[in-house]
Fold this sequence. Notes:
The protein is an all-alpha fold. It folds into 2 domains: 14-159, Helix Hairpins (Orthogonal Bundle); 191-220 and 228-262, no CATH class. The protein has helices at residues 3-22, 25-80, 84-161, 163-190, 193-219, 241-261.
Amino acid sequence: xxxxxxxxxxxxxxxxxxxxxxxxxxxxxxxxxxxxxxxxxxxxxxxxxxxxxxxxxxxxxxxxxxxxxxxxxxxxxxxxxxxxxxxxxxxxxxxxxxxxxxxxxxxxxxxxxxxxxxxxxxxxxxxxxxxxxxxxxxxxxxxxxxxxxxxxxxxxxxxxxxxxxxxxxxxxxxxxxxxxxxxxxxxxxxxxxxxxxxxxxxxxxxxxxxxxxxxxxxxxxxxxxxxxxxxxxxxxxxxxxxxxxxxxxxxxxxxxxxxxxx
Length: 262
């Protein structure tokens, strides 16, 4: 195989592949439907011309038939009047009219056959066009459905690869870790020594306020003379084991701070 033949084959193969790639079946079918519909007016014009020729020949045939009848009457009238010369002239015209009538009749017959064939061809084309249009519309619908299925398949492939799902899983794990860490810090803060010391300080402040209230009531004579003011005192006997541990820890902390300051 020659060099130019090989180059031509490669060029044609590349061109065909490029056309196959950019060719959209839906657009091609739509253009085909438009082309078929555009040919209908042309066919109608062609059929109309054939039918017009038939009608013209039929009109000429009718005119010639009338002319033949008139010439025949004129010939008879000329013979009766003894005008053989005029009758002979009319006979010549009659023969020519009869020949034209015969020829026109044949042409009109052929034109009638052609007109029927043209109408039949036009009707067959319109019927075939409607059939092809329906098939094309079905193919276009199938092409659209196939396109949607391809897009759906690509989307499903993306999910199967795990790009989005792995991202969701990573974000879920990070959020779960943050929630767990926050819950642990909250639990640790609520159970720490500082939180317990704050509870004790609030309790002591409440006791002081109650004692102050009793002093006001006693000074205003609202309490009995023999009843001493009742106050909430924190004694070693009423302190629970957990509170005692907290107090011990507070004392240790204060001692440690005192030593560091010295």
